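A common beginner's mistake is to predict each chain separately and then try to dock the pieces by hand. The better habit, illustrated here, is to supply every component at once so that their relative placement is modeled jointly.
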Amino acid sequence: MSTEPRGKRPGRPSIGSGNEPSGRRPQKMTTGRFGLYAFLVITAAFFLTPLYVMLATSLKSMPEIREGNLLSWPIAPTVAAWVKAWSTACTGLNCTGLQVGFMNSVRILVPSVLLSISVGAVTGYTLSFWRPRGAEILFGALMMVAFVPYQVFIYPLVRIFSYAGLNNSLAGIVVVHTIFGLPTMTLIFRNHFAALPNELFRAARVDGAGFWRIFGQIMLPMAVPIIVVAMILQVTGIWNDFIFGLVFAGRENLPMTVQLNNIVNSTQGEREYNVDMAATMLTALVPLAVYFFSGRWFVRGIAAGAVKG
Amino acid sequence: MKSSHINAQIALLPAILIALVVYCGTTGWTIWISFTNSRMLPSSVMVGWRNYLSLIGNERWVVSVTNLFVFGALFISAALVLGFLLAAMIDRHVRAESLFRSVFLYPFSMSFIVTGLAWRWLLDPTLGIEKLAHAIGFSWFHFDWLVRPDRVIYTLVLAAVWHAAGLVMAILLAGLRGIDGEIWKAARVDGLPVWRTYISVILPMLTGSFATATLLLATSVVRLYDLSVAMTNGGPGVASEVPAKFVMDHLFERANVGLATAAASTMLVTIVAVAAPWLYYQQRGRRT
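With all components supplied together, the output reads:
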C-alpha cells in the first residue's frame, strides 16, 4: 500500500513555502465552495437522520408515534421506553429486559478482549523477531482466513466444542472470539514490531535477555499505542458481534445484540416501536462511546487493521 | 540461549493450533460433510455431488446468490463513490472538518443489527418515511421497497452504504493526505482544472487506498448476514436472503447439514477463485 507511484514531475520549480498540505486553494466563497458545503451538509444530515429518528422515537409515546411523523421531536419526551427496554422488555415469556444482555456482553467482552490481544501480541512478537521455521506460512494462513466466510468453520467448530464441553458456555464464546480475532491482532502487532529497529532486539539478546524478558520488559512497553488500537478494534468488534454469540454463547450468555434482535422480533402483543428504538440505542451506546472518546485512535485502528498482507 | 528458541516455538503454539485445527481442519471437515447425506445428525454415507446438485436446484439458494452479486456490486461501487466524494471534499480545507469526519464515520462503529433495525424503522411502509411524506403533503409518494420482493435488496444496499461510506472516506482521506502538495502546485501551474486534476492525477495515485477499501468492503459483502437478519429476516418471502444466512438456517433451523456445508464450500471456492488471481496480481505488482 505504501508503494504507490509518486507522479512527481521533474524540473518543476516549487512555488510558495512548499509545506502546504495537499489540496490547498484560496478560500473564497465561490459557487464551487458553496456547492461543496451544500453537499457536505446534506450528506451529513442523511448520516445523522437515523440516529435522530431513533432517539426521537425512543422518547415518544406509542399514540404519538402513530399520529405524529417520523421527524418531529416528541411533544412530551419520556424515558419510559428506555426504562422498559432496559428492565422489563420481553423475549418470548422472559421479561427481564436488555440489562441481561448487557451484563452478558460485558462478561463476554472483558476476557475475550484480554485473551485475544495477549495471544495476538505474543504471536506478532514471535513472528517479527524470532522468525521460527514456517513463520511465513503461518502468517500467510492467518491472513487468508481474514477473508473466508465464517460459515465454513462454524459447524465443525460446534462439534469440536461439544466434544470438549465448551459448547454454549462463556469459555466457548471467549475462545471463539480469540480464534477469529487472531488474524487482525497478529497483523497489527507484527507490523508494529517490524517497524522497531532490530538493533534493539539484538542488543537485548547480547545482554542475555531471554524470550519472555525481551517481550515483557522491552517490547510490551513500546507497544502501548498499538495495544490501545487493538483494544478499540476488539471492544467494538466483539460488542457488535452477532453470529458467534448466537451460535456459541448458549441461552444463558446471549450477548446484547442477539437479545436486542430477539426483543424486537418478539411478537407478544402490539409492537412498541419506542421500546424497540430505545433498546437499539442502548445496544449502540458502548461502541458509540468508544468511537467518540477515542477520536483519531479509532481511525488509526481502521488503518492498522486495513493494511493487509 | 537454546531455551529462548524453544520458548518461541511454545509461544506460537496457540496460533499454530488454531491454524491447523480450526482453519485447515474445520475447512476440510466442512468440505467432507458436504459429500455425505448428513441431515440433522452427521452421517458418513457418501453421496457424491448430490448436495451440490440439489443446491443448484434450490430456488432460495439461487435467489441468495443473485442477491449477493447485486448487493455486492451496488454496495461496493456506491460506498467507493460516496466515500471518495466525501474524502475529496473534506480534503479541500473545509471548516469544521473533524465534525464532518465524525458524522460520516460514526455509523461504522455500530453493529449491523443496530444498523438494520434503525433502517427497518425508517423505511417502515406504514409509519416510516412514506407517512412522513404524506404528512407534509406528498400524498402520491410511495415508498414500500422494504416489503417489495423486487426492491428489498436495494434497501439493504442503502443501509450498508450508510454504515460503510465513512470507512472508505477515512481510508481515502489518509491516502489524500499522503499526496505531495507539489503535485497540486504543478497541476495548477499547468492550468489543469481541479476536477481534471482529481481524475487524471489524484485518482491514479490512490490505487492502493482504493484496493484496501475494496478489500474491506468485499469481505463484509461475503459475510453479509446480520444486516439481512435484522432488517428483513430474509423477507418478504425469500427476497432478501443471502448465502451466509442460507448456510446458517440450514445448519441450525432446517437441520440439513449436508446442504448447508455444500453451500458453505461453494462460497469458499468462489472466494478462492476470486481472491487467488487478485493475490497473484498483487504479488507480481510488488516484485516489479
